[in-house]
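Thread: "does anyone have the structure for this chain?"

Original post by V.I.:
We have the sequence but no experimental structure in hand. Need at least a predicted one for the grant figures.
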Amino acid sequence: MRYDFSMETRPEFKEIKSYEEFSKYYWYREELILICKQLGICATGYKAELNQRITDYFSGKPSQNIKYRWTQEVKKEVSELSLETGLLECNFRFSQRFRDFFSAQTGIKNFKFNVDMVATVRKVQETGDTSFTLGDLLDIFYGRKTCARYDKSCLQWNKFVQDFCADSESARFKNKLKAAARLWKEVRDSTREKVYTRELLEQHS
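Reply from O.Q.:
Generated one for you, tokens below.
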């Protein structure tokens, strides 16, 4: 049976009355930025942060426009790092200096920060949490603590394209990316799960 998307076209944001309805659809980060601007709330940050502000809007608690007050308080770089060093105290950056530090702590030669560490650092910086240490960030890496989760929904498009190209049936398209984009639009603007399937391709062949 052919799946009919005609009744599931994504409405304009102004027509949406609840977060439950809003969350049924896929929104690009650029769209969330515009929505936040229209609502008069902070429009910077990761996709997960923008989503949270819109959640607050629907719950009647608009987000505050938090500034990076802590950056002005950093006078000099901490010479020696330890697990007790505060994240804000050492003016943490995703730089080689800190990769080397965590490499020494974990024994991983080419250490890479994972996405939850990235989300956590952003949250600590925005909230000005002076109690959060490099040791806490190491616990985030090992999954021993949870502070902020990276919104993996922003990776859905990439996964969709990968799965589409991996399907042998996609070989008949000269421009796979264009074909994938057309299928993605059907899925993005509907309440259907945001994944690629062979059935989807057959329905829109």
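V.I.: this helps a lot. The chain has nine helices and no strands.
O.Q.: and The two ends are 13 Å apart (CA to CA).
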